[in-house]
Amino acid sequence: MSGRAVAARPLRRVAVASAVGTTIEWYDYFIYSTATALVFGKLFFTTLSPASGTLAAFATLGVGFLARPVGGILWGHFGDRVGRKAMLVLSLLLMGFATVGVGLLPTYSAIGVWAPILLLVLRLLQGLSAGGEWGGAALMAVEHAPEDRRGRYGAFSQIGVPAGLILAQLVFFVLGRTLTDAQFASWGWRVPFLVSIVLVGVGLVIRLRIEESPVFSRLREAEQRSSRPMVDVLRERPRALLVASGSFIANTAIGYIFLAYLLSYGTSVLKINRTTLLVVVIVGSVTWLVSILAAAAWSDRVGRKPVYLAGSVLLVVWPIPFFLLVDTKATVWLIVAVIVLNIGLGATYGPQSALFAELFEPRYRYSGASFSYAIGAVLGGGFAPLIATALQTATGTSLSVSLYLVAVAVLSLVAVLFIPRDQSRSSRTAAAIRS
Questions:
Q1: Distance (Å, rounded) from C-alpha 232 to C-alpha 204?
Q2: Considering only 197-201, 348-352, 358-362, which range has the smallest mean pLDDT?
Q3: Which UniProt keyword terms apply here (predicted)?
């Protein structure tokens, strides 16, 4: 059946479900990142110096990434065996449970060493959920889409990241404008985590209403599902795993510098007002969202690889100017810095759903896409804020952080160069997606 014959209403419902669900998932993930930059060091690692407490808090942020490959394998296996939809529902429930748990968690002053231990456990559960969430949302959007709009519809799972970030920053912005610093440190930081229970309820209602992926439904009817999807990926598509994982390293590393480290660096080192920085991050996030949609649509016309190359080159050349502008402390230059940075992030994130789907066969696509995404996240974003904090503390200059980002961006650029051209155009891969 031609993609044009797909009913518009179910397709729009799937697109909305992908966008809303991932927005809620990433809202949960990002409020943890923001709270890490702002208060977790003081509340859960009070026996350490301020700098060491920040490092320890960022370490918990990174540890959550270590659970993502496990989540990718777990959700990917059952996503390829049981179905995409069921895994989307379960991952959202797990993320909601972990996030609300953080909001209810006593601090170090109340329960001592159990506070950071429990914080770490809940962060690991968040990572486990995030490891499989993206793959399911991306594949549901791409596998429902018309064959010449895979990139465009796949972008609906991608915009959940900046949308979740915007939502998280807006909540912290409102709290910053209405509460004193003492009130925020005492109880205000818990509000974003507890609000998550309402958002998760909304997301569940939306996701339960969508239909299973037609690609998976055909696999199930034809009894062509892989019994060991991750093993099959490693045996049949090792190069695709390397290319996909490597292409994502720079995006996630630089993305987490933008969304987590910038707040910490700006408030603690540059002494910029926290509210100002939150506004800057929101502006950058809006740019990221718009550039994701534009880049994804562009990839449907010219192919995935040219779009990835353009974004990857920008991520190589911009880190040094980025920190030079940030270090001026001038709001206008801060905004310029994050706008350009997020154009590069959007170009290397918008076409990702379609590209990863095109690199793997349908019978093990959930496993391949999720594991690649998780490995790229671990190697790139997992410890990027921690590394950046350590570099800046050791050298006293942001140049060391810039050079670190240039290095990871070059690594991803090399991976992008190996994206097969015959798999970078939707017209050439429609049969593989449809099969």
A1: 31
A2: 197-201
A3: Cell membrane, Membrane, Transmembrane, Transmembrane helix, Transport
Following DSSP, what letter does each residue of 337-365 receive, concatenated?
HHHHHHHHHHHTTTTHHHHHHHHS-GGGH
CA distance linking residue 393 with residue 358, whole number of Å? 42
- Distance between CA atoms of 355 and 234, rounded to whole angstroms? 18
| Residue 425 φ/ψ region, left for φ over 0, alpha for ψ in the -120 to 50 degree band, beta for the rest | beta
Dihedral sign, CA of 203, 209, 215, 217? positive
Q: Judge contact between 241 and 416, C-beta under 8 A.
A: no
122 vs 145: CA distance, rounded Å? 35
Question: Would you state the structure tokens that stand for residue 230, as one six-digit string?
Answer: 């991750």
What type of residue is 219? L
Q: Which residues contact 9 (CB under 8 A, 6 or more apart)?
A: none
Cα(388)–Cα(408) distance, integer angstroms: 12
3-class state of residue 82 by DSSP: coil
Contacting residues for 421 by C-beta, under 8 A, at least 6 apart: 303, 305
Q: How far is CA 434 from the centre of its chain?
A: 26
- Cβ-in-10-Å burial (0-12, 13-18, 19+) of 346 comes to buried
CA distance 186 to 190: 9
DSSP state of 179: S
Supply 288's token pair.
């990221």
Beta strand spans in 4-78 (E): none
* Whole-number Å distance between alpha carbons of 104 and 93: 17
Mention every residue, 6+ apart, whose C-beta is less than 8 A from residue 120: 60, 63
Residue pair 391/401 in contact (Cβ under 8 Å)? The answer is yes
Mean pLDDT score across all residues of the chain: 87
Out of 2-16, 146-160, 191-205, pick the least confident: 2-16
d(C-alpha 292, C-alpha 289), whole Å: 5
Tracing tokens 């590393």 back to the chain, one arrives at 253
Is residue 2 helix, strand or coil?
Answer: coil
* Region 228-244 average pLDDT: 94
Structure token pair of residue 199: 């958002």
Q: Residues 6 or more apart from 84 whose CB is under 8 A from it?
A: 136, 139, 140, 143, 212, 213, 216, 366
pLDDT (average), residues 5-25: 74
